[in-house]
Amino acid sequence: MKARVHVMLKNGVLDPQGEAVRHALGALGFDGVEGVRQGKVIELDLAAGTTEAQVNEMCEKLLANTVIESYTVELS
Amino acid sequence: MKARVHVMLKNGVLDPQGEAVRHALGALGFDGVEGVRQGKVIELDLAAGTTEAQVNEMCEKLLANTVIESYTVELS
């Protein structure tokens, strides 16, 4: 089974990487880019029977810094 | 409107960051993690009327290194 985890900076946390991308897109002539947030996506190949609770625990312990980041888990 | 872009290393391209995460999860006692790939997710706030073709062009020109990375675009 597979799990996909998205880790994004929480709203209100400054995202300098996203700001740099927004600025660079403007400089390349792409108008109308009003905001950019950049995060991580982590694709996990898991043994059958792994539960969503275990994936959440991986996020809490390692994958996300829950002080400033939020995460979402999709199993497939 | 919003667009979400996923940028992942292509299959066959070594992903040391993913390998490090896999190793760290094992060290934390999470068994059954067979593979990890890590990529980027970029959320764009776009002016109304921006087309998917324009977002693809942003990916080709800036967001992804298409030599080693593939990207997918979701508009919403």
Describe the structure.
The structure is a homodimer of 76-residue chains. Chain A is α+β, with helices and mostly antiparallel strands and 76 residues long. Chain A has one domain (2-75): Phosphoribosylformylglycinamidine synthase subunit PurS (Mth169, Chain: A, 2-Layer Sandwich), CATH 3.30.1280. Chain A is 32% helix and 38% strand. The first copy, chain A, has two helices and three strands; from the N terminus they run βαβαβ. Chain A has helices spanning 16-27, 52-63, and strands at 2-9, 33-46, 69-75. In chain A, strands 2-1-3 form a three-stranded antiparallel β-sheet. The mean pLDDT of chain A is 97. β2 of chain A pairs antiparallel with β2 of chain B. Chains A, B: It is found in: Cytoplasm. Chains A, B: This is Phosphoribosylformylglycinamidine synthase subunit PurS. Chains A, B: Part of the FGAM synthase complex composed of 1 PurL, 1 PurQ and 2 PurS subunits. Chains A, B: One of its GO terms (molecular function) is phosphoribosylformylglycinamidine synthase activity.
